[in-house]
Amino acid sequence: MVYNTAQFIVNRKVAEEAISLNNIAVGSLFPCNPSTILSVDLCFRLQCLLKGVKKILINTDRSIKQIAADHNFTEVNLCKLFKSKVGYSMTEYRSNKDVIL
Predict the structure, then answer these.
(1) What CA–CA distance (Å, rounded) separates 75 from 11?
(2) What is the distance between the alpha carbons of residues 46 and 40, in angstroms, rounded to a whole number?
């Protein structure tokens, strides 16, 4: 896939508005290489996934196994991902939601 300058600028602008990555400058993610745009899409999807899981943990009493299955993850993989990105286990996040928020 070939991107011309106009497409690159539009894609960059849309991504900058849609993505807020902690400790990463958005500009560093966008050399003119479509594969990095795919990695930005993955980061955005990951943020959406984690935001959704956090809402479910706070607002429902669904089991972690059910939450993982709803998002097509195994319980172990979702727990590892959550802990690595959020800094708390899913159980800790749910039980300390008043402190964390």
Answers:
(1) 34
(2) 10
Quick one: pLDDT at residue 59?
93
Return the structure tokens found at 100: 């964390």
Domains of the chain plus CATH, in order, are 5-100 (1.10.10)
pLDDT along the chain (101 residues), means of 10: 47 50 40 58 88 94 95 94 93 82 59
Cβ neighbours for 97, distance < 8 A, ≥ 6 positions apart? 57, 58
Angstrom distance (rounded) from CA 61 to CA 22: 29
